[in-house]
Amino acid sequence: MGPGKAELLEAIMETGSISAACKAMDMSYRRAWSLVDEMNRCFKERIVVTSKGGAHGGGAEVTPYGREVLKRYREMMLATQQVAQAYMGRCKDSFVNE
Hints:
Layout: H1 3-15, H2 18-25, H3 29-42, E1 48-51, E2 59-62, H4 64-91
Antiparallel strand pairs: 1-2
Helix pairs in contact: 1-2, 2-3
């Protein structure tokens, strides 16, 4: 999981489809599908499920497990940022003022 995959999952949640999500992100459909496939293969449960088109069109949905993975990723990134800021605060005397 990284920032691009997290953003893609959020876009899928907002739009309800991989196609609309990748358009909103200015990403190729091939790249978006590749990222979704990679996430679905790397985690113990599926992150995104898709439904085929038809009279009402297809779609994609981030699974409850996928939402939990995304939530934990966001929490980890926030904690990492807070630790980095605290560390930089302790090191500020080591930097040259411009």
